What does this fold into?
Amino acid sequence: MSKLGKRPILIPREIKITLNEGNVFIEGPKGKRSYSLPPGIKAILKEDKLLLTRTSDEKQNKAWHGLARSQIANIIKGLIEGFAKELEIVGIGYRAQVSGKSLVLYLGFSHPVNFPIPEGITIETPKPTQIIVRGIDKQKVGEVSAEIRAICKPEPYKGKGIRYVGEYVRKKAGKAVA
It folds into this structure.
């Protein structure tokens, strides 16, 4: 058995789960989500626990067992608490603001960069140099954060750019003066 896959998923009171032919439908206070179970994985609902089992011990089924359990646990966590990633902007004159349904970034380019905010994601800018990406889908929150960071990655000489909060940027020595 997979170490992670054999652990039962505890279902909080505010979550409602329905199983239907390889699909798991989850409803919570922040919305609804569904998850299609991989082939060879079965879900069993017992009182306030959800157990995942596999039909055979094939290598692919073992891999999917732990993955499916983690995905469902993340969906439940997202529907109760939600997920958030924080980014910080480093650089003189660099700033961000939310304008309607887009994030406007001023990053030293000749023009401001408009980043459209996808459905299911909310972006906040409590400070001009701080961006908080929130949502119920962990994968989507991470993907949007990575796309924002990719607009202006931190450069290694001065450290200017967009980075995750707590990310360490290794700096290089500049050109040696003769």
